[in-house]
Write a sequence for this structure.
């Protein structure tokens, strides 16, 4: 009975052609279903050792018994699989290296037609979506990245844009008043930030002209503040002198 089952699984040869029996086809289908199930559980479409061994066993199990496969062919298949596995390992390693290189850099992503920019905090691998990058606390697929910018380059350009924007709001030396203290302090802060990122000056159009305008406005504001402070001190001194005169006792005139 056992031999009959084996023959039923192996199949038969008709007119020199090997044909699978119905039982053999069901066994193949079962193996395929098992392989598919394991692949889904692993959430991966890559070839792996388990898949290769299942295919190899199935091939050996259902080969033509009258014309068995040469052993050298199995060796060649094993060598081919080893090469594929090695290539996949190299690709996985390169992907990890690429992911780690993104950490600390600024990236631009296109997510559903919306452009998102920010610093990459960390990367992690997802079984379904692949490599994921964290930007401003949100995870995005690496494939969504459209550009990667060096951190120093990004900050230099960002600081340059801030300085240009604040200079558009800073009054000229002819128009500036002591009431412009808030915008003056902001301009000074952004100007000082330029020294932290020397490359930022190269992103500012007509930097020398803009720098001179900045110096003129800041100098004029400083002069106005000094004038007000000196005037206040003069008023205080005058007020104190007047009070002293009022408090001086009147001398009696001798007859």
């Amino acid at each position: 009975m056992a031999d009959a089952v084996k023959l039923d699984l192996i199949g038969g040869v008709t007119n020199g052609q090997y044909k699978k029996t119905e039982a053999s086809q069901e066994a193949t289908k079962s193996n395929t279903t098992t392989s598919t199930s394991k692949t889904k559980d692993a959430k991966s479409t890559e070839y792996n050792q388990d898949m290769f061994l299942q295919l190899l066993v199935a091939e050996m199990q259902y080969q033509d018994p009258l014309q068995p496969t040469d052993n050298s062919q199995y060796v060649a298949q094993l060598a081919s699989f080893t090469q594929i596995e090695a290539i996949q390992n190299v690709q996985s390693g390169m992907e990890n290296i690429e992911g780690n290189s993104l950490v600390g850099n600024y990236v631009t992503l296109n997510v559903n037609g919306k452009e998102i920019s920010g610093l990459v905090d960390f990367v992690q691998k997802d079984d379904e979506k692949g490599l994921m990058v964290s930007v401003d606390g949100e995870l995005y697929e690496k494939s969504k990245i459209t550009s990667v910018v060096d951190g120093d380059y990004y900050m230099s350009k960002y600081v340059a844009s801030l300085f240009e924007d604040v200079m558009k709001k800073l009054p000229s030396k002819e128009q500036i008043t002591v009431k412009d203290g808030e915008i003056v302090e902001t301009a000074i802060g952004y100007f000082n930030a330029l020294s932290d990122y020397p490359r930022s000056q190269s992103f500012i159009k007509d930097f020398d002209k803009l720098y001179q305008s900045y110096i003129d406005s800041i100098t004029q504001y400083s002069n106005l503040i000094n004038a007000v402070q000196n005037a206040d001190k003069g008023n205080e001194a005058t007020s104190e002198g007047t009070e002293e005169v009022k408090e001086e006792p009147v001398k009696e005139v001798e007859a």
Observations:
- DSSP finds seven helices and seven strands in the chain.
- The beta strands are 12-14, 17-19, 106-111, 114-126, 130-135, 138-141, 145-149.
